[in-house]
Amino acid sequence: MKNVLVIHGPNLNLLGEREPGIYGNDDFDSINNEINCQAIKKGFIKCEIFQSNHEGAIIDKLHEARKSFDGIVLNAGAYTHYSYAIRDAIAAIKIPVVEVHLSDIHAREDFRAVSVIKDVCIAQISGYGKESYFMGLDALIEYEERKN
Ligand code: DQA
After folding, report:
1. How far is the CA of 79 from the centre of ligand 1 (A)?
2. Cα–Cα distance between 139 and 41 in angstroms, integer?
3. Which of 23, 63, 81, 82 is catalytic?
4. What domains does the chain contain, in order, with CATH numbers?
5. Whole-angstrom distance, CA of residue 42 vs CA of residue 36
6. pLDDT tens string 35-53
7. Residues 85, 95: Cα–Cα separation, whole Å
8. Would you give the end-to-end CA distance of the chain in angstroms?
9. For 63-72, how does the pLDDT look when each residue is reduced to its tens digit (9 = 90+)?
10. What sign results for the dihedral spanned by CA atoms 128, 51, 60, 58?
11. Cα 88 to middle of ligand 1, angstroms
12. Which of 73, 56, 83 is nearest to 7 (CA)?
């Protein structure tokens, strides 16, 4: 597992400002710095971070990633709950994708407990704040170790 792509979906660019009681006070850039540091510490050689508020852009990035990354950590934001198009894109690529969420999607509104991408991801990690991303990196490493 050398190259990892981290994808943040809609509204996650506003982390730090956005509902801090739910998503925490750390801003988007500082979380990304920490993700980068953790990735390098865990032995990844390259960690790219991408954010988009647009479903199609996330799908394009997933497609692109199949050629240059070994694994993906994806926080699809609200798309998690209804985007069959993102689900199909994950299913279409052969690299492992881990679903992550800062908040505990099972302890909020009913609609958030539903993930249409869960079954095509190797793991779902939810409710650990920014740690969810770091745990997502671990899940990719463990997945590869199990495979070998
Ligand atoms: C989220 C949870 C989603 O329900 C929500 O729409 C988000 C963020 C999380 O990280 O907790 O945008 O994915």
Report:
1. 9
2. 15
3. 23
4. 7-147 (3.40.50.9100)
5. 10
6. 999 999 999 999 999 999 9
7. 17
8. 11
9. 999 999 999 9
10. positive
11. 20
12. 73
